[in-house]
Amino acid sequence: MSSIYTLWKFARPHTVIGTSLSVFALYLIAIAATNSLINLTNLGQTLGTLIACLCGNVYIVGLNQLFDAEIDKINKPNLPIASGELTQKQGIFIIIITGILSLIISAYLGKWLLITVAVSLLLGTAYSMPPIRLKRFPLLAAFCIFTVRGVVINLGLFLFFSKTLGGQEFLTPSVWTLTLFVLIFTVAIAIFKDVPDMEGDKKYKISTFTLLLGKELVFKIASSVIIICYLGMILAGMFWLPSVNSYFLVFSHVILLALLWLRSQNVDLEKRSGIRSFYQFIWKLFYLEYFFFTAACLL
User: Fold this and answer.
1) What is the pLDDT of residue 146?
2) Diameter over CA atoms, the chain
């Protein structure tokens, strides 16, 4: 049981949940867009897609832990590589297996899934691995994160599902709207994720927006970005997306906007626990977006 929990921590649970929700959400949105029915065949393809994407997820976050082991001993000492629960050799073995599996499964299932997974792995590798190691540069690090989470996953998976379900690739206004929302929202994740990690990043000379601008300003920017996302989605629901349930979409995002405002009033930026808690709250808002937007497309 302990080895399963160690692997779960190595996979970074918040990213696993985010990846899983994006797969199922885009599958269901494609079901609605193609007027298809859920059946065992496309459920099996979706399960294969989920496995491929989760293997890719483990590869990306695992590779980052391998090259950030010393930094994580300061910033995230509970992670398996940093704590010694997993050795470097074990970590390398896991990412090799998951990386290969993600490419094999996606290649078997379809062109668009292979492109989605391959581009994600490529950017994930460039983000963490020397000599490129884009995470050293704030703008390029943020670019990697919001490109994968915002553009590659949403457009790539929908193109795959539309081709699989309807026989032809296409994109809808709903998918473009979700992609733009997640792209901008992920900017908030990308710039805020380093706020709890100032100590280790400073010691190992990893340049981040937090070190350049200060945690107070980064907090304000991240919160403002999410507010802009919610206001944009409310306007899209009112004027741009006739194929979705606009009443549900607008109401749900007014609620999310209120939750963000209430939660942002009680963040103690002087305590790492408080900062980490707000960062996890941002991820929960990310999860809820896929849930509410998909529901609006289906209702």
Assistant:
1) 83
2) 54
DSSP run (H or E) holding 69: helix 69-75
| Domains and their CATH numbers in the chain | 2-298 (1.10.357.140)
Report the chain's mean pLDDT, rounded to a whole number: 91
H or E element that contains 195: none
Q: Residue holding tokens 């302990």?
A: 2
Question: Of all helices (H) and strands (E), which one includes residue 84?
Answer: none
pTM surpassing 0.85?
A: yes
| CB-based contact 257:230 (threshold 8 Å) | yes
User: Binning pLDDT at 50, 70 and 90, where does residue 207 land?
Assistant: low
- Please say whether the beta carbons of 201 and 211 come within 8 A: yes
Q: What is the mean pLDDT of residues 18-23?
A: 95
The encoded tokens of residue 25 equal 């959400």
Query: In this structure, which amino acid lies at residue 49?
Result: T
DSSP 267: -
Provide CB contacts within 8 A for 160, sequence distance 6+: 49, 109, 110, 112, 113, 116
CA-nearest of 278, 276, 268, 269 to 78 is 276
pLDDT value for 45: 96
Q: Which of 75-89, 97-111, 218-232, 269-283 has the lowest mean pLDDT?
A: 269-283
Q: Residue 101: CB partners within 8 Å, gap ≥ 6?
A: 51, 52, 55
